[in-house]
Amino acid sequence: MSKFRILVVDDEESLCEILKFNLERAGYDVTTKHSAESALALNLAEFDLMILDVMMGELSGFGLAKIVREREDTATTPIIFCSALDGENDKITGLDIGADDYISKPFSVAEVLARVRSVMRRSGRTQQTDEGIITYNTLELNTMRKRCTIAGEEILLTRKEFEILALLLKSRGTILSREQIMQYAWSGEVVLDRTIDVNITRMRKKLGEYGNNIITRTGYGYGFEA
Amino acid sequence: MSKFRILVVDDEESLCEILKFNLERAGYDVTTKHSAESALALNLAEFDLMILDVMMGELSGFGLAKIVREREDTATTPIIFCSALDGENDKITGLDIGADDYISKPFSVAEVLARVRSVMRRSGRTQQTDEGIITYNTLELNTMRKRCTIAGEEILLTRKEFEILALLLKSRGTILSREQIMQYAWSGEVVLDRTIDVNITRMRKKLGEYGNNIITRTGYGYGFEA
DNA sequence: AATCATTGTTACAAAATTGTTACAAAATTG
DNA sequence: CAATTTTGTAACAATTTTGTAACAATGATT
After folding, report:
1. DSSP character for B138?
2. Least CA distance to A70: which residue of chain B?
3. pLDDT tens across A166-201, in order?
């Protein structure tokens, strides 16, 4: 399993450690640096996401970000900025979004994780099928091995369940009609609508918390949402 | 065609930097100012869009907006307000002045980009959907997700409500007869006229302020207006 | 064959939605 | 302004849609 690699650049050492600890626990591969300059010594192209402090030594987070953007091999790497609290910046906290994002200190671990997930989702990196792996947070579907894991723990899904989940995850954010789901997971074979419902129910149970991510839009169908 | 020029006026320096960084990356030409007074020193007519903070020093964003509206050469420049206050009163004042959009802090970069795109679309008189998303100010209908949001906040619409609203928004500015609405949202199925009225009522309630945009033309039908 | 996991179907309960009606309010018309 | 038409909307009823347990059918495995 290829983990997502995150680079954290912040001059506050303790903050780096906290982020590293928590992000690693969430299944990410984390590298920390305490200055923009030392970060530049790394092969930046290998990171999937960067979390940069805005206020840092000579070269600020923005400065580093500009360099990252200019390099062809890192031009599209998502960046999350964070900056120290100064009262006014307090206003900018909260919200979960995508693309490049902004977090102001102090922030909660949950907040950072939410941002990271969100950015990952937006950038489509979670969908890269390099190795046929689809992930959402700690939920992982390996389409080659036909295996599903949550935080490394294997969840035994049956074939139909796996196919449906794979489709829902790949189409994350869109509501799929039962027709569409049937077309994909049953390859055109015709079964009753209710069969899909039943399979959804069975899957939700197995997925625990993640089961709640499978949403129902009455009258339309099902979808997978954050 | 030259780049789209955006003026950002906000006393929060870090926020300006973030907006500038991201908007520039999105291909816009961005100028930032930290007070309404310093913004007035610029040739305002050269901007295609302004993003103004409401709360700022002596001359507020509203004050600046009024001046912009009064000047003949900037009277039609689109304005997006942002503010930490999200009271209804603020919102109304802003929209009365002729703001094209309103974002309340905290907001995400993605949100701002979405609004900017939306304003550009409208000013370019190309109303319509990109990627199945229909917007009007902060009201957004995502036809893939079958989701309706107002300033990012989800509004739960039922299927019929969603279909009707989608039709009204797509046909913004035209009055649609109940026949037409029925044809679209009920796919030809026949129900009483009054059923549409009831669905309109239900929707208006859910949409809060935007409910007022759904207008009644006695004897004709309904429409969505600015 | 016996056992087991998977899958589809069915039936019923629960939830959500939609439609209808009745009366009040508003708009229009004579 | 009174009469009439049209619309707003609360309340209720009907219908549709979904959740899910239970069971049956299928096919794989021992």
Report:
1. T
2. B25
3. 999 888 878 999 988 988 888 778 889 899 999 999
The two tokens of residue B145 are 């997700």
Specify whether the CB–CB gap between B165 and B158 falls below 8 A: no
Report whether B144 contacts B135 (CB < 8 A).
Answer: no
Residue B116 clears pLDDT 50, i.e. is over it: yes
Q: Quick check: A62 and B21 CB within 8 A?
A: yes
Which pair of structure tokens corresponds to residue B55? Answer: 């709360």
**Token output for A119:** 């950015």
Cβ atoms of B77 and B49 closer than 8 Å: yes
- Its pTM stands at 0.53
Nearest CA to CA, how far is A153 from chain B (Å)? 30
Predicted confidence (pLDDT) per residue in A98-138, tens digit: 235 666 554 555 566 766 766 665 555 543 333 467 878 78
DSSP letter, residue B46: G
Q: Please give the structure tokens belonging to residue B18.
A: 């973030």
Structure tokens at A39: 């970060």
Write out chain A in H/E/C secondary structure: CCCCEEEEECCCHHHHHHHHHHHHHCCCEEEEECCHHHHHCCCHHHCCEEEEECCCCCCCHHHHHHHHHHCHHHCCCCEEEEECCCCCHHHHCCCCCCCCEEEECCCCHHHHHHHHHHHHHHHCHHHCCCCCEEEECCEEEECCCCEEEECCEEECCCHHHHHHHHHHHHCCCCCECHHHHHHHHCCCCCCCHHHHHHHHHHHHHHHHHHHHHEEEECCCEEEECC
Read off the tokens for B42.
């610029």
Q: Which chain B residues touch A63 with a CB distance below 8 Å? A: none
Q: Which long-range contacts (CB under 8 A, 24 or more apart) does A57-60 make?
A: A57/A11, A59/A35, A60/A36
Amino acid identity, residue B46? E
State the Cα angle at A160 between A139 and B156, rounded to 5°. 65
Q: What token pair was written down for B59?
A: 């001359």
**Whole-number Å distance between alpha carbons of B194 and A200:** 37
Identity at A61, one-letter amino acid code: G
Average pLDDT, chain A: 76
Q: Which amino acid is at B102?
A: Y
> Residue B107 has what DSSP assignment?
-
The CA–CA distances, whole Å, from A20 to A32, A51, A65, A143 equal: 7, 11, 20, 29
CA–CA–CA angle B150, B117, B129 (5° rounding): 70
Residue A67 has a CB neighbour count (10 Å cut-off) of 15
Chain B residue with minimum CA distance to A118: B110
Strands B147-150 and B176-177: unpaired
